Amino acid sequence: MSANLNLVNDSARPRILLVAANPSQSTVTGWPVGFWWSEVTHPYWVFTEAGYDVDIRSPQGGALVADSYSDPEDASGYSAHDLISRGFKTSPAHAARLASTPSLEGVTPDGYDAVFLSGGQSPMFTFHRNPVLERLVSAFHDAGKITALVCHATCVLLTARLASGELLVSGKTWTGFANSEEQFADAFVGQRLQPFWIEDEARQLPGTNFIVGGRFREFAVRDGRLITGQQQYSGAAAARLVVEALGR
């Protein structure tokens, strides 16, 4: 990693670290899993329209692969309505940012105003109990920076602890992928998709308040420096809360 990436941004433009998942394989279905297009592109759009610089990275670096149903050009037509992702995907300059992402190695909160973790299917297998990501989100929160996560990326919050040893979500109200949405997804494909359900696990944590909105409805929550979005329709809403929290 080049030395200047962690220096304070000379331009005064807010700088967001947007983390997307590397491609992996589901241990439940055996299918390839990756990031979800709208959870990268919709927040990116909100941030850049607000005048922010966005640094897109992945835990391991390299080329990213999206979950097929999130692709607006997929034959299923599931996300054909997603014109923002279609534009990002077909723009050579933008698509190149996902074709070769820098890793998170050596990244600290210095030089960034916020971190934003996007979801998809891969985070359930690559983000959960990932010490690098746990330390990253905790470091941002401990440093007084805005810490945002959406959809299945919120699985990081089930185990992330602050420097004090306390769970980051202790005393916090937050959201993530809902049981009703997991039930719908399982029924849609005809089998179990996830190794666990975030809502089930979150409701077992003492001293935290996990809430959900309507099934596949835009829903995002801010509690202090922590911002969370429920699912793929909540990325832009969570990003708007980040913009609001940063005073832009």
Write structural notes for this entry:
It is a single chain. This protein has helices at 37-49, 83-90, 92-99, 123-126, 131-142, 179-189, 198-202, 235-245, and strands at residues 15-19, 24-25, 32-33, 53-57, 114-117, 146-150, 173-174, 209-210, 220-223, 226-229. It is α/β, with parallel strands linked by helices and 248 residues long. Helix 1 runs parallel beside helix 8. The chain starts with 14 loop residues before the first strand and ends with a helix.
Concise summary:
With 248 residues, the chain is α/β, with parallel strands linked by helices. It is 29% helix and 14% strand.
Major β-sheet profile:
6 strands, mixed
Strand content range: 5-15%
Shape: globular
Kindly state the percentage of residues in helix.
Answer: 25-40%
| Secondary structure category | alpha/beta
* Cα-atom radius of gyration: 17 Å
Topology, number of strands: 10
Order of helices and strands: EEEHEHHEHHEEHHEEEH
Strand order of the largest sheet: 4-1-5-6-10-9
Distance linking N and C termini:
29 Å
Figure out the total of helices: 8
Catalogue the unreliable spans.
1-10
